[in-house]
């Protein structure tokens, strides 16, 4: 998220971060965003109980109130309902710490190491109703080194994510039709 904000503040960027929204009240990214001059809001999901649709309507309202045109998920660890995905279809991106379609979901680094893969990486993709199944926009590859642990590999993949996501979001926003 911080990498997206920093890149979006560059004079030649095709995007700017209008809002950082979290469902977790003490998410560290909120303070980081605030320090960088970006508006923040928290919409906790717990008060909504099992009513995921009501929570997502509140999220959607906050995004639209901030005049967001694209949603870039970064560490938002909830599976979204088809309603919210549909409301932002073709305008919601996510980054995933594997070379999709390999290893959707969790434990991606451990799975890549256990499989004996020579490389891992990260993928920016459009969000669809299926978990980590949307069209791939860009990827970055990271070698898996002898002796890698999930932690060492995760750190190198995270470094690649910080480079890939801003680049992919910028390219995506440049390609959007002008209104």
Structural class: alpha/beta
Order of helices and strands: HEHEHEHEHEEH
Strand content: 15-25%
Largest sheet: 4 strands, mixed
Entry summary:
The protein is of the alpha/beta class and 179 residues long. It is built from 6 helices and 6 strands; from the N terminus they run αβαβαβαβαββα.
Topology:
Elements: H1 2-8, E1 20-22, H2 28-35, E2 40-42, H3 52-65, E3 71-72, H4 82-87, E4 92-96, H5 108-114, E5 119-126, E6 136-143, H6 150-175
Parallel strand pairs: 1-2, 3-4
Antiparallel strand pairs: 4-5, 5-6
Helix pairs in contact: 1-6
Written overview of the protein:
This protein is an alpha/beta fold. 38% of the residues lie in helices and 16% in strands. Strands 3-4-5-6 form a four-stranded mixed β-sheet, with helices on one face. Strands 1-2 form a two-stranded parallel ribbon. It catalyses: N(1)-(5-phospho-beta-D-ribosyl)glycinamide + (6R)-10-formyltetrahydrofolate = N(2)-formyl-N(1)-(5-phospho-beta-D-ribosyl)glycinamide + (6S)-5,6,7,8-tetrahydrofolate + H(+). The active site is at residue 96. InterPro entries: Formyl_transf_N (IPR002376), Formyl_transf_N_sf (IPR036477), GART (IPR004607), GART_AS (IPR001555). It is an enzyme of class 2 (transferase).
Short key terms for the protein model shown above:
16% strand; 4-stranded mixed sheet; 179 residues; two-stranded parallel ribbon; 6 helices
């Amino acid at each position: 998220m911080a990498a997206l904000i920093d890149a979006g503040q560059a004079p030649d960027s095709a995007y700017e971060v209008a809002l950082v929204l979290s469902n977790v009240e003490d998410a560290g990214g909120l303070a980081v965003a605030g320090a960088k001059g970006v508006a923040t809001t928290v919409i906790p999901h717990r008060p909504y109980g099992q009513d995921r649709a009501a929570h997502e309507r509140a999220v959607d309202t906050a995004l639209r109130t901030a005049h967001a045109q694209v949603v870039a998920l970064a560490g938002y660890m909830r599976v979204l309902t088809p309603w919210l995905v549909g409301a932002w279809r073709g305008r919601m991106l996510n980054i995933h710490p594997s070379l999709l379609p390999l290893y959707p979901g969790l434990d991606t680094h451990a799975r890549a190491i256990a499989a004996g893969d020579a490389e891992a990486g990260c993928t920016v993709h459009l969000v669809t109703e299926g978990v980590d199944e949307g069209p791939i926009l860009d990827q970055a590859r990271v070698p898996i080194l002898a002796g890698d642990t999930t932690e060492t590999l995760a750190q190198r993949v995270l470094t690649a994510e910080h480079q890939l996501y801003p680049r992919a979001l910028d390219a995506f926003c440049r390609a959007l039709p002008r209104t």
